[in-house]
Amino acid sequence: MTAELALLGTTGAVIAGGLIESLTHRRRLEKIPIRIHVNGTRGKSSVARLIAAGMREGGIRTCCKTTGTLPRMILPDGTEYPVFRPSRANVIEQIRIVKTAVEFESEALVLECMALIPYLQWLCEDKLVRATHGVLTNAREDHLDVMGPTERDVAWALAGMVPRGGKFFTAERDHIDIYNQVTAERGTTIIPTTEEDVEKITPLDLAGFSYVEHAENVALALRVCEDVGVDRSVALRGMWSAKPDPGAMMAYEMDFFHRKINFVNGFAANDPESTERIWKMALERYPDVDKRIAIFNCRADRPDRSDQLGTVIKNWPEADRYLLIGSGTYIFARAATNAGIDPMKLVFAEDQPVDQVFEMIVELSEGNSLVMGMANIAGVGLDLVRYFANRSRRREFK
Questions:
Q1: 256, containing H or E segment
Q2: pLDDT tens for residues 203-217?
Q3: What GO biological process, any one, is recorded here (predicted)?
């Protein structure tokens, strides 16, 4: 056999194997009658968890996979397991998740979209999920290096996961014209979550959560649960009892050698609009503190995010100190000082371990202090949340 024939035979075997795997995956998808694909700039992990919890409470056997702060597989009984990744995240892992859901005889599967590149947004939906229900939380300025350069470009990129011939739920309103156009092209019914829907979420509804949950997320999740036949009160009860994502907004209060430190985990919010909103919420929660310390966890591989946040913070209520942790902190510092932040208020803790970051927080604190983490949960951000969680009193942030 010549080398050319051997190569041709090998190529044919690879193609045949791929076709068989594709057909097998399609058959598995058909065994799961309800497939819900969740995407968006902010809140998609929370919404995926809320939908799955509401459906479980309604008696629908549901698996859920989120990729938020930590990738998690949630089984029909609510048990969570980490998603094993032999290397970096890859959209192909959705095939393995579908296989697991079938093995657990799931009637429904809620999947958080893990793609950023516009082409992969479409690939995930059209080839790997083929959702009966597409869900989009919002489209905001984030990951502009991949989906930008503008917020509207982000909205178009996220439109790649609109399913064909199914239903599409969204709480996005600024770019609704894009989703009206795409759903019409794909024969999909669009079901927007309106301001009136959000207003129906009462303070009592939100009081059932042990962490900060946004009315928009709850309203969106309830619309999806209602569509699959789960009563509102039943779905809401399930959502209250669900375990939050590790990045959910929590407050931790600590008395440390005559210093009271109120730490708010806002690391998971990383676009300017969301981050400003939760910073103001934290200030309202702790209005009479002696020091306000804003921690920005920077990432050298997310330079656009550091530049965005550094550029806009001058327009927010001012902090007494800005503690910069993680990597690539100079990008944030340059943008912040160019925007008018006093450079003397910047404190650098580049690549410092969590215990050293904590020591710096203590040194910066005075009397009664508010300390809030922002920008990125990965790496030392999550370590810091765990550090406070293990040493403090957790408070419901309402």
A1: strand 251-256
A2: 899 888 888 788 999
A3: capsule polysaccharide biosynthetic process
